[in-house]
Design goal:
SAM-dependent_MTases_sf, seven-stranded mixed sheet, methyltransferase activity, about 45% helix, Ribosomal RNA methyltransferase FtsJ domain-containing protein, RNA_MeTrfase_FtsJ_dom, Rossmann fold, single chain
Length: about 350
């Protein structure tokens, strides 16, 4: 899906950003400078507007759709090369949220063919085309081992199990498909993005989508499995708390930003390997309960997803105080992510000046 990201300035050069820079985040420091410069660059603003318009359903050409499919496949290849996370075996099962047009799935299923693993299967959930989603571009051969569910992820009921639905909400949400909850997956990707249409950018939609994916991801990844989460702005408190959560629950965490997939955007992929086997791996069930309660707040109380709501994982004070040395780990995780975005912004600036000087 389109990777245009709304920049909510909840930590624009805030205390966490300054702390990370003080700890040696040189690429983040350069990135902050470039972002400030790009905000006043008229040619870059025109390019952003053009990209948002192209992301709208009616403006997508067949070439654009194919390019996005190939870009996703190459992006997954870069993630795997860096984190060595696609380790297929007989009976390997993966779940891909926001799967269409299917680039990530095509790479993973290609690896199963190379390994001669048998009984491998993929499951995906993607927004229907009538709701501005993409078509599934997988070949007929790959589709034989891939099951897709067309749905809006934010319309699944993900509240606490002991919380009865109100009469008003009973018909608004559906249960997760049986194929999602019957058996845990070896590999789960949380990569869905808000699709841009004629309506203004909506922070609440973005929050609800991230929350829904986190709940499904922690519910469906097997112990010892791999969870990949698409996040944005590695220097922000909210993102830092999600990374900390993955850090304590998993044995290994990587932050990867594919160079060939919207490198100038602030998005990246957190790869958590060995989920449930980390220093605090036993907290997965507790985390799911906490997130389900937050899901109700976002859906029924009109709340926005704020960093303080994740204080049950780590308080903002403890995070900024450097609890368990995690800020140093943040610097390590973020330097490569920021380096790639610096390159992307530099290339975009160069291209925009060449294009608009003609």
């Amino acid at each position: 899906m389109s990777d245009i990201v709304v920049e909510f300035e909840d930590d624009r050069l805030g205390s966490l950003t300054k702390q990370l820079i003080a700890l040696g985040a040189k690429n983040l420091e350069r990135l902050v400078e470039l972002r400030e410069q790009s905000r006043n660059d008229e040619s870059l603003t025109q390019i952003r507007t053009k990209e948002k318009n192209e992301a709208k359903t009616d403006n997508r050409t067949e070439k654009m759709k194919h390019d996005w499919y190939v870009g996703m496949r190459n992006g997954m290849r870069e993630i795997d090369k860096k984190a060595k996370c696609v380790n297929v075996h007989d009976g390997f099962r993966f779940l891909d949220l926001g799967c269409c047009p299917g680039g990530f799935a095509s790479y993973i299923m290609g690896q199963t063919e190379k390994s001669s693993a048998i009984g491998c299967k993929g499951v995906g959930i993607s927004l229907p085309t009538e709701q501005a989603g993409y078509d599934l571009e997988l070949s007929k051969k790959l589709r034989q081992s891939f099951e897709i569910h067309w749905a809006d992820l934010t319309r699944y009921w993900l509240g606490p199990e002991d919380s009865p639905r109100s009469q008003e909400s009973a018909g608004e949400f559906s249960e997760l498909p049986p194929g999602i909850t019957d058996k845990p997956f070896d590999f789960v990707i949380l990569g869905a993005s808000v699709i841009y249409s004629e309506v203004p950018d909506n922070r609440a939609d973005i929050d609800r989508l991230l929350m829904a994916q986190l709940i499904i991801g922690f519910m469906t990844t097997r112990k010892g499995g791999t969870l990949i989460v698409k996040l944005a702005h590695i220097e922000r408190v909210m993102t830092a708390k999600v990374l900390y959560l993955l850090h304590i629950l998993s044995t290994e965490v990587w932050a990867v930003k594919p160079l060939r997939q919207h490198s100038k955007q602030p998005t990246f992929y957190a790869v958590a390997k060995g989920l449930g086997n980390g220093q605090q791996g036993g907290r997965v069930a507790e985390v799911v309960i906490g997130l389900r309660k937050l899901w109700c707040c976002l859906n029924f109380e009109g709340d926005l997803f704020m960093p303080a709501q994740l204080d049950f994982i780590i308080t903002t004070k403890d995070l900024r105080d450097g609890k368990e040395g995690f800020l140093n780990r943040m610097v390590e995780l973020g330097e490569e992510v920021c380096r790639v975005q610096v390159i992307g912004l530099q290339n975009a600036t160069k291209h925009s000046k060449q294009h608009y000087q003609r």
